[in-house]
Amino acid sequence: MKKSKKLSLSTTHIIMLSFVCAVAVGSILLSLPFSSATGRSVPYIDALFTAVTSTCVTGLVTVTTAETWSIFGQAVILLLIQAGGLGIITVMSGIMLMVNKKLGLNDRVLVQDAFNLNTLSGLSAFVKKVFAGTALIEGIGALLYMTVFVPEFGVRGIWISVFNSVSAFCNAGIDIIGADSLCSYVTNPIINSVTCALIIMGGIGYIVWWDVIRVVKKHRGSRAFRFLTLQSKIAIVSTAVLILSGAFLIFIFEYGNSCVTGNFNIFEKIQFSLFQSVTTRTAGFATVPQENLTESSALVCLVLMFIGGSPVGTAGGIKTVTFAVLAVTAFSAIRNKNSTEVFSRSISVRTVRKALSVALMSFGIMAASTLLLSAVTDADTLDVLYETVSATATVGLTRNLTGSLDTAGKIIIMLTMYLGRVGPISLAVAFNLRKENLNTVRCPEEEISVG
Question: Which of 44, 234, 340, 451 supports an S-S bond with 347, CB 3.0-4.6 Å?
């Protein structure tokens, strides 16, 4: 009698299935009557959509979160956001560590691949620091939010502050204030600055945190930047360049737009422009209706959304480091250089190939989603593209299209959000697992014309 083969799942499969399981459990809980604010079950398609957008920390919603869900339903959404932002594998590992269980080899491999790290050493300490750092930053954010929300909403303001802080740090963009997101606070400096800070801290990447802390402790002064790792340098510089350049372009394009900033003073125009530039990089909070933006600003936002945040953080998109590697590689090719160099360091060909693969995969998901959604809706092309790029990069901004989608449109966006969240992660894991076989016979080279 033949022995049955033991089912063996790869790290990629486990990571992808972990998101599916979280979505399945979340959608069932949200479809229960006591998850609804009215006591009547929300249609399952909307419960499923909400579970997907929460777990994938996207923020596109088909129903108003504040008005549709009870406190229990909102708590389920918050847990899904937190788990999706940190990563299901990381949350499971953190729970094991909290009950004094050590991470086994398989557990450490999962964490390593989930965060796309290069070593297995110190992973237990890494997970603990991620949880501690996340709790600290979200706690500070909640306290700062309370200075505005508690005077306005009373005791409920505490829950709103906690929810908003977690959602902003995890780059989810879901709020429980109302249907207009943060539009009522477009000129409020506290809400704008706290939200931007949380988005950037969550999106910059955990390894950048620890690297900056290490350098600050050992090297003080203006030259401390030189002691950062290459990863941190690229992430910090590219993040700053994208935010500032995006804000500048949005400031110019929206300066005279009476539907957005036409009646604002200079400080308020700058504040809005910075917030819009930051939130498009996978956060999804809105201080103005996105359909009111000029087409020029919308195109800028599309680029920022597609790039997203930095690796090993809560943000989505192809990531800042991926974009920087591709940009530097292109400039190196233009200068006829054989290697990709930045900050006096060379980037391996393997990393360049990985960056190209992640970018092409995300572009393919976005393109396919755009074609499919265009086929099932008669919405304007720019609105459709805004929706699909937002879903692919797990941003959550919409030009007022999500709520009007039919069942087919909702399914397309749900698949896009899922693939946009787990696709790049899975591809990165696959690259880590598949080492190049140096003994493979190489085919002869032949020149071709490109460009």
Answer: 340
Q: Is 209 inside any structural domain?
A: yes
Residues 6+ apart with CB under 8 A from 402: 60, 61, 62, 387, 413
Q: Which domain holds residue 71?
A: 12-116+123-433
The number of folded domains in the chain is: 1
pTM: 0.87
Contact 199, 57 (CB under 8 A): no
Q: Domain for residue 4, yes or no?
A: no
Q: Count of alpha carbons within 13 Å of 60, Cβ hemisphere only?
A: 35
Residue 442 lies in a domain: no
Does residue 159 fall inside a structural domain? yes
* Averaged pLDDT, groups of 10, the chain, 451 residues long: 51 76 94 94 95 92 93 95 77 56 57 55 72 92 97 96 95 89 92 95 87 83 81 93 96 91 90 95 89 95 93 84 92 85 87 88 94 94 95 92 93 93 66 53 67 63
C-alpha 390/C-alpha 384 separation (Å) is 10
Rounded CA separation 280/162 (Å): 22
Least Cα distance to 414 among 48, 76, 83, 17 occurs for 48
Dig out the tokens for 286 from the structure: 């809105």
Cβ(15)–Cβ(425) under 8 Å? yes
